[in-house]
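To assess whether ligand presence alters the predicted conformation, the chain was also submitted together with calcium ion. Input:
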Amino acid sequence: MRIHKIIICLILSVFTSEGFSQVSDIVPPSYLISNVSIDENFYHLKGKEKVEITGNPIIPVYYTFDGTDPKLEGKGLNPTAYKIAAGENYVFETEKTHIIKARAKFGTKWSPLRELKILATPTQASFTNFKVTELAYHPNGEIIGTDTIGGKDYEFIEFKNIGPDALNISGVRIDSAVEFVVPDNTVLAAGDYFVVADKPSKFFDRYGQDPSGNFTGNFSNSSELVWVEDADGNEILSFTYFDTDPWPEEADGDGPSLTSVEVNPTGDPNNVAYWKTSSFTHGSPFFEEGNFSSTDSKVNTINYLIFPNPTSGHLNVEGIQKDSQISLTDISGRNIFNKMADHNLTLDLKSYHITSGLYFLSIEKDGMRSLHKLVLR
Ligand SMILES: [Ca+2]
Ligand SMILES: [Ca+2]
């Protein structure tokens, strides 16, 4: 009886005084650095320091180092998350930049997210893995109702951290063609993208997600120097693009962007061999085209009718041939569903518990595939 009471006391201690039933009341994990509790969501390292992720006395905590949430959409457990058993803490020493995201988990219920960005002072060598991976300098426009939206509103430039460690990119400046300074306390996780756009609202309309930042000015539609430097004014990378042969001419107003040939580029972006035309009509901000390459299956050129796109959930697909395989993937290539269909199909995307953003609908028949970009609002 006494043990029973102790257990009830411990469980209640997980929650605030608001009560047991509120999911958001599970107390999130906390952080100590050099034995001092950290209240902000960032910390500037003063050399090598001890970091402690404080677990929970009676329920486990899950954390990631890759910038993703330990809780998946639909409340499942992210396979990249590490576990801290109930009653334990995780301690490590570091002098590197990290982004940690952690939540406590009680059954199927999760605590709020607790994020900590640990920022080391970058050196010039830190930026070796910061690469330009895409440029939409002359996107095509859009006619929405009676409005014509100029192509320049859709300009963006994409960078990627191709290294194994998170990167402190605070103060990085894009200069010359367009102007932008990365805000303080910005960490780019390993493998993550940083996309700076001309008009965030237009970017959202087209791609279903917010850009990382907003530049001023515009990229020339013919040729221009792009200069990127660190907070101290040291060059990180620079290149001049062109809109004429041998540079890919389709990137000059036909719709596609300039995209790096390599997923993790190693060459010089001044060299035309660094670049190719995007295989997607409006480029591939925040994702890597290799995940969706259609080179291994023939492209199906049938004109399907897919509407509305962007959609707020309900989607109609018309013109499907008998026994076609329909599948939906997110931008990381994660499969959302596969189903067989013929003729017409009506889908309720919200029933798959997916969030707003960019998705790919693939329609495959007899080894011929047709891939469609889909924006869920
Ligand atoms: Ca332009
Ligand atoms: Ca891309």
